[in-house]
Amino acid sequence: MNKKLFKTILLTGLFVGTTDILYAFISIYILSGKFSEKMFQIIAAGLIGLKPAMTWGAGAAFIGLFIHYFIAMTFTVLFFLLFTKIKFLAYDKFLIGMLYGIFVNLVMNFLVLPLTIIPTGKFNLSRTFIDWIIFGCIFGIPLVWNTYRFYGRTGTGK
């Protein structure tokens, strides 16, 4: 991997990971009226268990932070790799960004989170639809935008 590609993927992954976690904090605050002080510990609980995550304090929070950015980086690398292999992905940066954001959200909610001990709430279609729009805008579009820019594509459907 060349230096420019590595830097682009790293910065893109950090950006979308940060916007994602900010959205999670804001969303929880809006829904509960409380700031989630243990967000990263809860993320770590998916790997190390709830009791250790709540008792390890900052160590567990660091593990959760790492897991969060690892997942964001994985989805970023995946898109950069797929982009060169699947011609349809160069069609329209906004449409593909929204669709990739929805894809990431679906994978997280229906594959990754169920494999953890993190409890998932009931499926709510209107809430899910809102999440898809927001996630497409804060994760999918920025990721796809940077991919198009890196590969010199316009994404105008031509």
Structure explained in plain terms:
With 158 residues, this protein is an all-alpha fold. Helix content is 75%, strand content 0%. The chain contains 6 helices and no strands. The chain has helices spanning 3-32, 39-48, 50-55, 58-83, 93-112, 125-151. Helix 1 runs antiparallel to helix 6 (125-151) and helix 2 (39-48) packs across helix 4. The longest helix is centred in the N-terminal third of the chain and has 30 residues, at 3-32. The chain is globular. The model has no long low-confidence stretch (mean pLDDT 90).
Radius of gyration: 17 Å
> Strand share of the residues?
under 5%
Report mean pLDDT, rounded to a whole number.
Answer: 90
Major sheet description: none
- Percent of residues in helices comes to over 70%
Give the overall shape. Answer: globular
The chain-level structural class is: mainly alpha
| Count of discrete alpha- or pi-helical segments spanning 4 or more residues | 6
User: How many DSSP E strands?
Assistant: 0
Termini separation comes to: 28 Å
Order of helices and strands: HHHHHH
> Ranges with pLDDT <50 over ≥5 residues?
none
Can you tag this structure with a few keywords?
mainly alpha; 158 residues
